[in-house]
Design goal:
By secondary structure, the chain is of the alpha/beta class. The chain is built from ten helices and eight strands. It has one domain: Thiamin diphosphate (ThDP)-binding fold, Pyr/PP domains (Rossmann fold, 3-Layer(aba) Sandwich), CATH 3.40.50.970. Helix 1 packs antiparallel against helix 9 and helix 4 packs across helix 10. It is globular, with a radius of gyration of 19 Å.
Length: about 350
């Protein structure tokens, strides 16, 4: 069964917020205080600004490898992960660098990862697209598409077997649903009723392959029924709709009721990576999706709730840009690790 998401979100704050905890003037934001809504807005802006800066840095030749931008998809990341606990685990894909921001990773560490410098959480061992942080329970993604779903499913099994706190979040694009690794992970989680939320970021393109050439399914969430779990379709540009769907999935996972598959219909503004001009997409298609930019859409929702985003937007952007500038300066001043470290952390000692 596929469930269409609604508009009534609920969540709890994950950290102390400087802004006053007041409820919006109407009930459309029930369950989220004004401070929480503004915190989500801050995260939306942060994800966008950090990602856009990473694109510029790559094109300037500041770091090697490649960059896979998620600009346009921020509502999926913020909506699903906002409210997660420190004990929760995240299995990102190559396009989910900004998931680390929502999980609480400082921008300084993200820039260090891009630059592969000695201050990076992985000491420069992974490519820029493979951000992970053991301290924050973020699994380093694999190059093989959907392999991170198998890894984080294994973590979910371990948490259940050891009776430890925490649930898991796994992310992948629409193309991943055509791989064997994806199906193996979802099937296993369904059988063992693991506490995991699977998030499909359906941006219509698996690199250059359109959705219509990889599946005949109307909705990718329809596949969930074959694995004994709810499948939820949600507008991935609508932050509040995504958050509501995610919070119900989180409730089920924490209650031991098993996994949920959430399909977020979204869109990446740029090519598959920064070396992809994306000529396979029409300008009309891109323009139509850009009109549904999740940031102004959320600003409109805030206004309907009696909250003026304009009064804080510049303050937020200035704060974020200062943090970005400090992070970039630190990364550029940091040396690369000693080449001999390549042999470290390979075998248990």
């Amino acid at each position: 069964m596929t469930v269409q998401s609604g508009k009534k979100p609920s969540a709890t704050a994950t950290k102390t917020n400087r802004r006053k905890m007041t409820q919006p003037r109407n009930n459309k934001g029930a369950g989220l205080s004004q401070a929480q809504l503004l915190e989500m807005y801050h995260l939306l802006l942060k994800c966008r600004l950090v990602d856009e800066r990473a694109r510029v840095l790559f094109r300037q030749g500041k770091f090697k490898g490649n960059h896979y931008s998620a600009v346009g998809q921020e509502a999926v990341t913020v909506g699903t992960l906002y409210g997660c606990q420190p004990s929760d685990w995240v299995g990102p894909s190559h396009r989910d660098m900004v998931a680390a921001l929502v999980k609480g990773v400082p921008v300084k560490l993200i820039m260090a990862q891009l630059y592969a410098c000695v201050d990076s959480p992985d000491r420069g061992k992974s490519t820029p697209a493979h951000f992970g942080s053991p301290e924050h329970n973020i699994i380093t993604p694999a190059s093989t598409i959907a392999a991170q779903w198998q890894l984080v499913t294994g973590v979910a099994l371990g948490l259940k077997m050891q009776k430890r706190e925490g649930i898991c979040f796994a992310y992948a694009g629409d193309g991943a649903t055509s791989t064997g690794a994806w199906h193996e992970a979802v099937n296993f989680a369904g059988v063992h009723k693991l506490g995991i939320i699977y998030v499909i970021q359906n941006n219509l393109w698996a690199e250059s392959v359109p959705l219509r050439l990889q599946t005949a399914a109307k909705n990718l969430a329809d596949k969930a029924v074959g694995y004994g779990m709810p499948g939820v379709v949600v507008d991935g540009m609508d932050l509040l709709a995504v958050h509501k769907a995610a919070q119900e999935a989180v409730r089920r996972a924490r209650a031991g009721q098993g996994p949920t598959l959430i399909e977020c219909k979204t869109y990446r503004w740029y090519g598959h990576s920064e070396i992809d001009p994306a000529r396979y997409r029409s300008q009309e298609e891109v323009a139509a999706w850009k009109k549904r930019d999740p940031i102004p859409l959320f600003e409109k929702q805030l206004a309907e709730l009696g909250i003026s985003a304009g009064s804080v937007k510049k303050q937020f952007e200035d704060e974020i840009n200062r943090e970005i500038e400090e992070a970039v300066a630190a990364a550029e001043a940091s040396p690369y690790p000693d080449p001999a470290e390549a042999w470290d952390h390979i075998y248990a000692e």
